[in-house]
Structure formats: C-alpha cells, structure tokens
Amino acid sequence: MTVSRQTLRVPHLGGTTVGFRSSGSVLDPAKPTLVLVIPFTTTVDYYAPEFENSALTSKLNLIAIEPLGHGATRTDSETFTYWDSALVNVQLLEVLGVDRVIAGGTSQGGWIAVQMALLAPQKVQGLVLIGTSMDSESPQSRELGCWDGPAATSGFVKLGADMTTPQHDFEPGQGYYDFLVEIGYGKDLGASLRSFWEETIKTTYRGEEGKRRICMAAINLASRDGLYARLPYVKCPVVWLHGTSDVVFSLANAQEGIKHFVNSPEARLVPFDKGVHFLSFTHPKEVHENILEFTARWSRQGRLGFFPEVPVAPTHPRIPRISTITTSLFACMMKTYAVNNTPSLTHNTANVVASPSPSNPEGHAHKRRRVALACGTCRSRKSRCDGARPKCSLCRELGQECVYQQVGSSPNLTVGKEYVAQLEHRIEQIEEFIRPLREGRAEITPVKSFPLPEENDLYRHHTSTAAGDPSSITGNFSSHQGSHNTNEIGEADTSEDSIDGMAAISFQYEQDAGFFGPSSNIAFMRHISKAISQATYRNPSLLSVPSNDNKHGNEMTNASQPHAHTERIRNKQNPREVNIYALPSEEQSWDLIEQYFSKTGQLLPFIHEQSVRETYFQMKRNDSTKVRRTWLGLLNIIFAIALSLCTDSDMPAQQRIDESDVFYQRANALCDRESRRNASLEMVQYLLVLGQYLQGTQKSVQAWTTHGLAITAAFQLGIHSPEANKAFPALECEIRKRTWFGCVLLDRTLSMTFGRPCIIPQSYIRLELPSVEMQVLGRTPQPETCTHRDGCFFTAAIQLYVVMYNIIDTCYDQNLGLSTSETSYDIVSKVLEGDRQLDEWRHGLVPSLGLHVLQKPLTTRDMDLMKVDSVIFQRFNIVLSLRFHNLRILLHRKFLEKFLDMGGMAGSEAKVPQQVGVNSVHNCVESAIVIISTVHTVATTTGWHRGVLGAWNYSLYYTFNAGLVIFGALLVSSRESPKNPALWEPVERSRPYLDLAVDALRRLDSGNHVIERCVEYLSQIALALAALDSNPTSGNSIPITTLTSNNTSAYPDTIVPSSSHMVPFNTSHHHQQFSLSQSPVSVDLGEFMIDSDFDFLGKVFFDLSHSSNSNNNINNINGSDSRASAVNQPSGLYRG
C-alpha cells in the first residue's frame, strides 16, 4: 500500500512541517530505504512512477521528501538554504526511526542528498544522483554547457526583494509553467502531464505566502555554494545517472563533478543517450534498473544495514537516535513540538496494521526480533542491544567500543535463520574473492602494507596478495590499508595478442602500414635511395624496392616486424605486473623531481613546480593516504622521463631505461583508462609529459595517439579559449595557457617528424603568449616581479613553431600526401618566404628576449667560456639553435630532394633557380654542420657542461637528420661538382662531419639501443660513399671521392677531431647485435626511420659492399692502395 503525502513536525528553524510520501505504512526492516528529494518547484508527485513501480517497492522502502519552499513543507523562518533542507530531511528520518538510508534526488534533489551525506555520514550509506550538479552556478559550469541559473531565476529573485505590496493573487504564470516542464521533460511532453504540473505549481505557490516560498527557493538555486571542496568528505558509494540531452546540467559538467568523489568506494557516472533533465521520464526502465543494481550490490557488501521495524509516522514525539545532530538539543526540542497533522497510522506496534510485503505476506504485525547475542557494553548498562555488527546502534552513538563475547553456552540461545543465511552469504563472498588469489598467485610475495610503499630497488616486479580493478580506485588509499592490507596491481603495458576479444577468431599475423609524409626522415630516405639507384647502374631492380614495390603507395610504409611480434606474444604470455601504488624512497623522489624541473620542465614549462612539491609533501605527511589518481600518474610519468633522460649519471643506459619503464607502467595503469573517460588539466599535462617520454622509448609511435588524446581533452576543457580562461585566477589561467601551448608545440613536432598533418590549425591559436613575469618554476615564490627566462624561452619556441607550421603548410602541403607538380620557381618563392620568417625570428624576437642562436659550429673554446651558474641559460640557447637549424634544413631540403630525384634541374629551367637551388643545398649543409658540431662538442665534454644539451632523443633526431642531409648533398655533389667544382666546394668540405655525426651519437648515451641503431646506419652511409667510389660506373656518372681523401685542413681541430679522438667502432660486436636482412632489434623509430627502410638500406649496402669486396680483392692482388682494403674490411657486416 502506497501512502499519500503526509507531514511531520521537526524542530529545525524554530519548527518545520515536512511534507513527504512513503511506499508503505510500515517500513520493512528486511529492505533498504531509498530517500528521494524532489527537483525544483515540484512535489512528491514527481516520484509517482517510482512509487507505482512494483519492482522498486518490492525491494526498497521509498520515501520522497519535499525540501523547504516546496510542496507541503512549511517553516516559520522567512529565509532558509539548501543546508537547512538537508538538516530537516535528516531530522525527519530520525523521527521516523530510520537508521541508515540511501539518499538520492533529481536536479536540486541530488544536491541536497549529498548535503545529507555530509551532515549525517553514518546515516546516509549511499548516493543516487540523477541529472544534478555539484558545482555552484559558476562561469566554469556554463563553459561546460550548463544553463545560466542566475539569469533563469532572476525574475523570482528580484520579485522576492519587493516586500512593499503583498500579492495575494500571485501565481507563477503560464510562462514559468511552460519553462519548467520543457527544460525538465523536454518539449515532447503530453498535454495531460503538462496540465497536471501547471495546476500543481499554481496551487502550491498561490498568493503572497506562495510567492515568498518560490522566491526563496529560486534564491537557494541561484546562489548555492559549490560542493567540490566538500566532496572528498563523502565516503559512501555514489552512482550518478545523467542524460546526454540534459539542457540544465551538461554531461561534461557531470563528468567533472564525479571526479571529486575521491574517497568514495565507488563513484560511477552512467550516461544515457538522449536522456533529458528529468531522466526517469525518458529512461524510466534504465534508471530503475540502475537503482536496484546499486542498492542490491552495496546491500550485499554490508554498506546498507537493516532498519528496526517502525511505523511511518508516530502520533506522539519520541527521542530519536541522532549521530550528527546534538542529541540533547534535539530531544529537548522534540518535547516541545507535537506532530502537526495526526496521520491515520498508529505508533503502538501492538495495534499497527501492517501491509503485506515479501517478508510478511499475510500482513500480520511484526514482533520484535530477538537478539541472539548482546554486546558487552549493552549488557553492562542493561540496555536493549539491537545486535548490529560491527557496532550496535547504542555503542555507535556513545562512541563506545562494541565487543560481542560468547560467555558460555545456553540451551535457550537461538539464532535466526536469516542471520545464519547472512553469514553463509558472506563466507561465499570471501571464498569467491580469494579464489583467484589462491589459484593464480600462490607464489606472490606480500608487499608493504601501507598504500604507497617506498622501494629501495626501483626496478623490481612488484606483487601483492590481491589484485584490484584500477578503475575502481579513486584516490583514498586508506581503505586499502584498513581492509585488505594490499596494494593494487597493474599489468605491464604489452601489445595485443593474436586472439580476438571474444576468443572466437585467431587472427594470423597481419602487416601494419603507417603514413609518413613528405617532411619525415622516411620520405627523405626515399629520395636518397632513388639517388643511389641513379648513381649505380649494376642492379637497378634491387635498388628500387621502396619506390616500385610498395603496395601501400609511396607515402605508406610497412611498419610490421614479425620478430617483434613474436617477442610481444612471448611477453604477453608472461606479463610483468607492476604495483601502481609503490613509490621510490623520499630521497630518490625529491631527486627525480629536481631532475625533471631543472631539465625537461625548463624546456616545456607548463607544470607549476611549487604545486607539485607541495602536493608530494602533503602526501607524505598524510602517510600517503589521500592523493588524486591522476596526480599520482603525473608524478610517476615525471619520474619516468626524468630518469630516462638523465644521461649524466653513472647508471648504465639500459638499466636506466628499464627502471624508467617501471614508472611508465605505473603511470599507464593509473591513468590509461581515466584518460579515455575524464578530462582535467592534470590529465592533459600527464598526456603531454607521456608523449614526451614515449618519443624517447621503443614505444615512440604511440606518441601520436597519446597526443591526440591530449588535444581532445584540452578542447573539452576549453584551455584554448581566451574567454574560458578569464574565469580563473591569474596563476591558473597562466598554467592553462601554457598547457595549451604545450599541446601546440608537441603537435608541430610530431607533424614534422612523422610527416602527418597538424591536428591544431594555426587559426585555432588565439591565446596571448605566456607571461615572462609569471613564476611557474622554482621551489619557492619570488617576492619581486622579474623576467623569468623559462617564459622567454617558451615564447621564442612558440614563435619558432609558428614558422614551422607555415613551412609545413606551404612547402610540404601540410603533409597531406597530395601529388603536386610544382616547378622550381614555385619552390623558390616558398623557400624565400620561409627564409624571411626565419630571419625575422632570429634577428628580431630572439635578441629581444635575451637569447641568441648559434651561427657557426660550437667549439671546445666556446664551452670553456661558459659558467656553471649559466647552465640553464646556455641550454636555452643551444636547444633553440638546434631547433632553428633543423627547421632551416627542413625548409631548404626541398631543393636537395629536387636534385636527388631529377639528377639536377631540367634543361628548360632558367639558371637562376639552378643557382638558388645550389644555395639551398649549401644552407642545408651549413645548418647540418652546426648541429653536428654542437652535439659532438657537448657530448665530448664531461661534468656540468653536458647539461647544456637538451633531451638525448631530440639531439639524436637532429644529428641523425643532419647526417642524412650531408650524405644526400654529397651524392648530388659527386654528380654535379665536375661541371662546376667551385660551386660545390662547400658541400665537399662537409665530408668529415658525417663521421663526426657518428662519433657524436656514440658519445651521446652509451649503451642506448635506439642510438646504437642509428649509429649503425650512419656508419653504413659513410661506408656506402666509399663503396660507391669502388664501383666506378659508365656513362657520365662520376666516381665519389672517399671520406679520407678530402683535405680537412679547412676545419679547425676543435671542430673536426682527428680519427684518434674518435670513439672506435667495433664492427664485430655490432654485427652480432644488428642484422640488416632480419632487423632483429624491435625498435619503433617513427621519427627517424622504421625497420622496412633500414632493411632496404641493408640490401643496398650489402650489394655495394659485396661488389666492393670483389673489386678490392682484385685491387689488393694488383698491389692497389690500402684505402680500398680498409673499405673492404667491414664488408662482412652486411652479409646475410
């Protein structure tokens, strides 16, 4: 039997009559109780579908409550707030004798339900939020797509302030009736339901008294305070149901709100496609199913207790048990206030007319349940114990220890079947929980019991006695410590195996193809391979494999690696598990934080250093019990990149990379799923740092996907919008701005290296440049405003990448891979415009920021002049110089590619473009020399001098690219220089720098497999020049001069060291490690080259070297010079 609306008197605000509705005359103690708070200006009739749903009422006790200013609820106080309504609701539950409930509500009802959980955490054991918001009516909520609440309610707010003339004939009006039902139910609402609410609202708010109540309700809605800062204090499970078509509170706002329930055991957002604000209208079945699933699951887990049998409305006051409100005050006030309306229900349990229920099918009156065992406290006090576990109600109220102790046996002691069934069910749950641990992890060693353990050895396989679902952890790790005493396990990041997700199909190994457009090194290698085939006429079919046998087209490159696939399958079968909550020792943590912000953090300064340090300090002070999951992931990826790029330590490169991978695995387990579900500024920063890290690992191709996630989240947060950022404090606005520019810089870098279109068009960049006076880095705040060099560097880099975007856009057609027939004259105009922009940047902006760009090779004398206190400043200059010259190469490379492809300019073209083309090649070589000499000079130093170089992966890219350019230029010079030797002399003088590039990379990070692989192929390129020379061709092809034959006296020894200063290259050692025909090293070098390109070179160089071997053997027999023999010596490296 569903009871219609009733009222009860509670003491708050000098006495309040509360309107409510119950699903039965007596609350069934065998069922959980769900309290539902109504939305704005409705009544308990809003929840009529829930009360009429037998599936709900058979499993739950339902109570709908009308807050202050709504329905039949009345108070003598003229003003009130949502907090008052929440307190009134709690008092109503006390009067009804309900100990524990699930609180929920729609719109404002969800807000009030959360306030109830904050006021009475022992009473509210779960939250069901529907179409609500936890934010105030803030600008941020409107940016996320919410309505303008203050504007919508401004009419009633202003009306409430007019108290001069009473309006006894007041009615809200037809405009308001239509507004409410359309924003709540949508415009497809039927006439009968629309008419019902028009009449209901008109009746509820008629006259002066109705005007005052609706105006105060509007004031509550428009001026409510935000709950974000309080949500961490909610410790009960939460389910949030929200429609995608909610015009009041957007889904994006709900996604932001759910993230703040960081200490709830469950905080889950369930979106409903095309669901409106009053969600149960469009999705009644789904809403009810989610409510039943949520309450049933948490009831089984013991979160929601059983309630004593009580009538719904007592006829005389009783002293309730109150956990949050002061008991004595409430008891005194309850003696004063009698029940306003005497309901038809009686309080005397002997006379209660019970309604039928699943536990009482005949409708007979319940008898008091006999408790099998009372606790010790109740026994000593001779009080009635309700037998609740782990604490009875009385001990919980008094704050006493509650101990159940069996004192002997009694033949009269009885235990109810229900209690035994509960125990059996709990045992089944425990057995089900420990079964996978017993079966699959018998060999696992327990870890430290506290949630974020420190580790003495950074690289080890962390294990635990239990594995949890990472998605269920929200950041309050104290629950782990108190319950299972374990740490969550995350599986190491491995590639997919060959079985489909349903285990229905076993796919055979399929080759993958990736697009690497015109600006990539891979595309440039195709031009080089074409030039090699033109320079040697012995076996053209072998030398034209990339251009003629590419089933994906010239821009599509086969990225498959069968040997690597086998290795991934092997790793998948035995995955390494990572304890995602483990942290290094405090000393190591502080050291890695310092490493990051003194190096990488300086070059991309979008993370506030003081905030990171303060958060880490607070985390350690709180014994690692409270920390955001995304922040912990950000911290781990900071540790990973700091360790990975720390080349100045004594740790071997492979060990350093392995240990940094542990931090990466932890960060990935913490944030990988979150990055696809939630968006926050912290998450964008995490993704950007992750993208940087991935570029220096064997997972470099993943950087493209990670970058896409970062940009998507950035757009969702609106950090690209000047208007959106205005709503934030100055520092936060600056951090948002810098994070956006971090997205832009990474976008331009990946576009250039992968040869793919930029994701962010230049027209989308409307923010002002970063402030050079805002402090973002540094341990402590500086009292005085000054110019910060990290801001100057960041500004210079941003402006340089504007030029990069223009070059990619004009010279490389935005890397779209379109077939164009541009002439040399077209290229000339584009290159000249790019040169103008580069010169404007170099001579105008950079000096104004106190920085400079190197125009000549860096020497050891330059290094000696540097001072230790200027390391960061010098690093800024060197990194800007490398970026500038690499971009200059990219600009002028167009003519070099033209020479490589066409064998020189067509005869019909004028001599001016020919001269301009040669000058462009000179510019390429000149910048390549600056890059190689700079990296080599720094790499050969020791101590703090090595710190002036940026990250090794970028230095590797610039140097490798410069080496390829010099090789390509020398190929062209070998053909063109006999026609005009003076014109090509600058190119011929660059020959020693090819060997210098190899030596620089060897010294960059010894033992790094990624670098060793590039060293291997640059070495083969150097040998290829000699091999081509040892195979003279017919026709007009000119033999290529060997490396050693060039006179290097034009270069000072400080720039081009003699061979005795070079690091020796152990060919036999590298022969075991690299095999060109098989490419056994599983390395993704998306921004350098990938295996198929390296394999092609292997075939080319093997053929050249094999032929050279034959010719040199003849030469040796005939007593030819020793140079040919020296070239022949490493040729065995390229066999098979």
Automatic annotation (TrEMBL):
This is Quinic acid utilization activator. Keywords: DNA-binding, Metal-binding, Nucleus, Transcription, Transcription regulation. Residues 471-488, 1119-1136 have a biased composition (Polar residues). Residues 374-404 form the Zn(2)-C6 fungal-type domain. CDD domains: fungal_TF_MHR, GAL4. GO terms for molecular function: DNA-binding transcription factor activity, RNA polymerase II-specific; RNA polymerase II cis-regulatory region sequence-specific DNA binding; zinc ion binding. It comes from the Eukaryota. The keyword Oxidoreductase does not apply.
